[in-house]
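REVIEWER CHECKLIST
Item 1: Sequence provided? yes
Item 2: Single chain? yes
Item 3: Sequence as submitted:
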Amino acid sequence: MEIICIAWLAGVALIQWAPALPDPLAWAGLVLGGGVGLIYAMLAPPGRGRRPALVLAALLLGAAYTAWRAELRLADALPLALEGQEVEVSGVVASLPQSLEKGVRFVFEVEPDATPASIPVPRRLLLAWYRGWQEDEWYGNPQVHAGERWRFTLRLRRPHGSVNPDGFDFEAWLLEQDLRATGQVRPGKAQRLEVLAPGLGYRIEHWREVIRQRFLEALPDKPYAGVLIALAVGDQRAIPPAQWQMFATTGIAHLVAISGMHITLLAALLGRLVHGLWARFPALVLRWPARQAAVLAGALGAWAYCLLAGWGIPAQRTLYMLAVGALALLLRRELAAGPVLALALGVVLLIDPWAVLAPGFWLSFGAVACLFWALGGRLGAEAGWRAGLRTQWVVTLGLLPAMLILFQQFSLVSPLANALAVPLISFLVTPLALAYALLPLQMLADLAHGLLAWGMVPVEWLARWPGAQWQQARPPLALVLLALPGCLWLLLPRGTPARWLGGLLLVPLVGWTPPRPAPGSARVTLLDVGQGLAVHVATAGHDLVYDAGPAFSAEANSGERILLPYLRAQGVRQLDEFIITHPDQDHAGGAESVFLGLPVARVRASLPASHPVRLMAGAAYQPCAAGQRWVWDGVGFEVLSPRGAVEEGDERKTNAWSCVLRIDAAGQRLLLTADMEAPTEAELVAADPAALAADVVVVPHHGSRTSSTPPFIAATGARWALFPVGYRNRFHHPHPKVWAAWGAAGAERLRTDQGGALRIHMESDGLRVEPWRTVEKRYWRD
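Item 4: Structure as written out by the authors:
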């Protein structure tokens, strides 16, 4: 059973990580090969290769099944002609509305019968409804709730997200969630049709929202109210980012999600309660044994909790394992732990083959598999706190390779933090949170929050410890696969000969550092941050960041969400130079997060004296001015503009402050131009046109028509023109005339909204520019 389910997993993963789906002929070959293998395994005599045939059949059929499901999902697409157009649809709010800085976001399920056939929109949409001024009219906070039926006028677009090396794949997440378009509600044309639409799923979402609101009203402004909401209804977005960081640093993030431990505990409590009550009535015991009644009650309770908690992958895994175990007990059969876990794995992938794209899938099944491997049949030898510590040690060590490749970090204080937090959260806080969800007594909410706040005090102390977390660059898959046998060997029982040898297989993993450019060469990455600019320049021994991208809201920016994760995955421990070209939000919006997230040796910028980053930098700040030069590892850098440092009270447009940087490496040139406009271009051309000559130009001001004048384009003589622009941005950058002008000059043009991050290799053997959507192809990306 185990090997067959693992083969099924391999077939699913093979398709989900493929650059393209198999064509019809290849798909037919997968089905035919899998079918032949299955028939042979069923008809062949024992011992004649039946097991290998069955494994091969599971692999091929898993791949064929996943490809078929993927084709069906991709077919539910928004036609290109409808992008940006207003369409009227009717449907139901199918998820908890999530608050945004200026509105709400929610999943909307379109009702085909109530939507004109001439509007072929996908079945499930991710919508945002904003408040504010639109078309000279003010719209207040949207009042939309789960389970309501609405008629909306929408502006939709196809799934699109930033694509960066080692970055979060928003398009993959949308595919996994079966959200085949995103859009905005036109508020003046929205009409509520029904307060609560029929259907169990919609009613469950409605109950979840009611419970969430109950917690918010009972615990206003309480710091851990979001954690209690997550434990009760699975809404993790209510947890502030600072708390998530603390939980990640201490390795207890799994406890504030709906984990298998919580579901198992609830099932056990319900089972024990039903068993005690059932055994008191002889008539019931004579009709059905109390033990079987308790098992069924526990399984049903776990199923109800999973529905209330949002049906996440860890919840599904636990439910299916409990269901298999319950069925075995009801049928008076015994099953080993391995087949139960394997069957749960197979069921999860049968229902949702995109589960392999979620980190929670690997962590959930991996943690349970490690516990079965290390403690199976031996947990009874230890009890109490010793068993708890050993459990935490097993999970921490067993998941170390997965944590490094998924998150590039793992907690060194996780065993201790979990030893403190597991009993508190699992045995006290979670039952109290669920009790308050079912029985709204204020004292239950207050007691749950008080216990949680008290228990987080030592966890906060551990999170502040300087050595609480190990961080490193993202290791290659080969080193992760090499480390897995080492972890399994280290987890063998005490007394196993030479257990310490397993640690040798971990050394390459934790000691790996990514390759750097050779001396004299440079690797420049123009990141895909939407409508903004962020560039990373790496030499043999130095790192420079040029701008930090936009601020998306008061709580989120590209520095925190894109730039810092990218830099950490690349193994960057500190920045030798951080250039902030000017204070516009699409360039400096993520600067504070970068400055706080990494040590910075020097900040070179054109910022007013009151700018927060300038104040934080202190003595490390240096005004950006033409003529500044330095050399790192044989790579030259020169600032071309502004001519003279920007002073307080400068009345020029902030775009004129832009710090223009030229990089010379391996006999090639790159020009970074920020938002400079026509007057600055004319000034530079008049001063020294030869200084502007470059092989690669990051086009000024995102391709705005206020820049890229003919004399400037001619002076650069660029072979490549790169446009950092957002997908369907409201400024319509790049301007068609500017796009055409660079093409007419002979430059090859690339844009981040179409190619993702653009990586430029300036090396002795030549110049290469790689669009990341081409380097890392996935079948779901346009």
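Item 5: Key structural point noted by reviewer: The domain at 80-198 is CATH 2.40.50.140 (OB fold (Dihydrolipoamide Acetyltransferase, E2P)).
Item 6: Recommendation: ____
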